[in-house]
Design brief:
About 55% of the residues lie in helices and about 20% in strands. Strands 2-3-7-4-6-5 form a six-stranded mixed β-barrel.
Length: about 400
C-alpha cells in the first residue's frame, strides 16, 4: 500500500504539480511516440514488402527445379513424384530470345508453359491461345491485340547453306501486368509446343513451383534422382532484392535507435531534475520510518515503471492504429499507385522490437541517472541539516 501511495505521489508530481518539470514530461511522451512510430513503420513497411514479394511469387513461383541436364524420361518421373505430393507446378521451357514487332526489337524471356498440365493463377483469366505479353514490354514494342510477333533464338540454328537462327511467329492474344518492371518489361508466356518448335527439340528445362515446399520436402523428392537436378528457391533467385529489403529494415532500426538515444538523453536530464526536486520528500519519508534502501529501490522502480508503461502504451496504440488501417481499408493513395490503401503486416516480432528498442535505451539511461542520484545523495542527515 505504501509503495502504491508513493508511486501515485511521484506520478502526480510529474503531471499535476505546479512545479512539475516539462522536460521529463516531454521525454516520456517522446518515448511513447518513439514506440508508436516504430511499430507503425514496421507494420507498413512489412506490408509493402510482403505485397511486393507476393506479386513476384505470384508470377515467378516459390522456386523452380532445373531439369535441363536430365533426360525427358527422368523429368516425367519427377513430375509424377511432385504430383503425388499434390504440388502445384508448371512444366515449362524458359528461353531468352529476341522479339520483333515491325521495326521495334527487344529481348524477352519467353516461358513456354504446358497449359494442359497446370495453369498458374495469374494466367487463368488470360487468353492463352497465342502470346501473353508483359504490359511494359508491349508498350516498348508498341504492341496491341493481334499484333504479329517474330521470335528469334540466336542459340538455336538451322543449316540452310549456312547457319541461320531459328525463328517462330505468333500473335499477341493478351497482356499481363504485375506492376513489377522486372517482370512486365522482360517476360512473355506462350504454349510449350511453340517454344519446342522454336528450338527444334522436345524438351523442358524447368518445373516451376506455385505451392510452398521446404528444403526437406524438396530433398526427399529429389534424393532418388540425378545430382544434376537443382532446386533454386525464390530467395536465391532474388538474393539482391532480399538483401535490399533486409538492409532497409536494419537502417530503419538504426535510425530509431539513434532517435531513442536522443530521448534517453532527455530522460537523463529530466530524471535528474525530478530526483533533485523530490529528494527532500524522500528525506521526509525516511524520517517517517522508511529505510534508505527501500526508498532508493522505490525511486528506481518508479523510473522503470514509467519507462515500461509509456513504451507499452505507445506500442499498444501503434498496434491498434495498424489494426484499424488493416480492417477499415482506407483508400489514401491516388489511382496510379499499386497499393491504394496502405498495406499492413502485423507480426509479434515487430511488436516485441517496437517495445524493446525504446525500452532498453531508456532503461539504460534511467539506470545511470539513478546511480548518479544515489551517489550524490549518500546521507539524508546532511540533507536535512541543509534544509534546517
Amino acid at each position: 500500500m505504501i509503495k502504491f501511495n508513493l508511486f501515485a505521489y511521484f506520478f502526480s508530481y510529474i503531471f499535476k504539480s505546479r512545479t512539475r518539470q516539462k522536460l521529463i514530461f516531454l521525454a516520456i511522451v517522446g518515448l511513447l511516440i518513439s514506440s508508436f512510430s516504430l511499430v507503425v513503420l514496421q507494420g507498413v513497411m512489412g506490408g509493402l514488402q510482403e505485397g511486393l514479394i507476393k506479386r513476384n511469387k505470384n508470377v515467378m513461383g516459390y522456386g523452380f527445379i532445373d531439369v535441363s541436364k536430365i533426360s525427358l524420361s527422368d523429368t516425367q518421373a519427377l513430375i509424377k513424384k511432385l504430383e503425388e505430393k499434390k504440388s502445384l507446378f508448371t512444366v515449362e521451357y524458359e528461353i531468352e530470345v529476341m522479339v520483333k514487332l515491325e521495326n521495334y526489337v527487344n529481348g524477352i524471356i519467353l516461358h513456354g508453359v504446358d497449359f494442359k498440365h497446370y495453369v498458374p493463377e495469374f494466367l487463368k483469366t488470360k487468353d492463352k491461345s497465342e502470346v501473353v505479353l508483359g504490359s511494359e514490354l508491349a508498350r516498348q514494342l508498341r504492341g496491341f491485340y493481334g499484333a504479329s510477333l517474330i521470335f528469334t533464338s540466336p542459340a538455336h540454328t538451322t543449316f540452310m547453306m549456312r547457319e541461320i537462327p531459328r525463328q517462330g511467329a505468333s500473335r499477341i492474344s493478351d497482356f499481363y501486368s504485375s506492376e513489377l518492371p522486372e517482370i512486365d518489361g522482360t517476360r512473355g508466356w506462350v504454349r510449350l509446343s511453340f517454344v519446342q518448335n522454336l528450338i527444334g527439340a522436345r524438351k523442358v528445362n524447368k518445373l516451376r513451383l506455385y505451392s510452398p515446399l521446404d528444403n526437406g520436402e524438396v530433398n526427399s523428392i529429389l534424393k532418388d534422382f540425378s545430382k544434376d537436378i537443382q532446386y533454386i528457391p525464390w530467395e536465391k533467385q532474388n538474393s539482391t532484392l532480399v538483401w535490399a529489403l533486409n538492409l532497409e529494415t536494419r537502417v530503419m532500426l538504426i535510425l530509431f535507435v539513434g532517435m531513442s538515444l536522443l530521448i534517453g538523453i532527455c530522460i537523463t536530464i529530466g530524471f535528474l531534475i525530478f530526483y533533485n526536486k523530490v529528494k527532500i520528500d524522500l528525506a521526509s519519508f525516511w524520517i517517517l520510518g522508511l529505510s534508505k534502501k527501500a526508498l532508493m529501490s522505490l525511486i528506481f522502480y518508479f523510473g522503470q515503471i514509467v519507462t515500461i508503461g509509456f513504451t507499452a502504451l505507445g506500442t499498444s496504440i501503434g498496434v491498434l492504429f495498424l489494426y484499424l488501417l488493416k480492417t477499415e481499408q482506407f483508400i489514401l493513395m491516388p489511382d496510379q499507385f499499386v497499393e491504394r490503401n496502405i498495406p499492413v503486416k502485423i507480426e509479434i516480432l515487430h511488436i516485441i522490437i517496437s517495445f524493446l528498442v525504446p525500452y532498453l535505451v531508456a532503461s539504460i539511461f534511467s539506470y545511470f541517472t539513478f546511480k548518479i542520484f544515489k551517489k550524490e545523495n549518500t546521507s539524508f542527515v546532511s540533507l536535512i541539516r541543509k534544509v534546517g
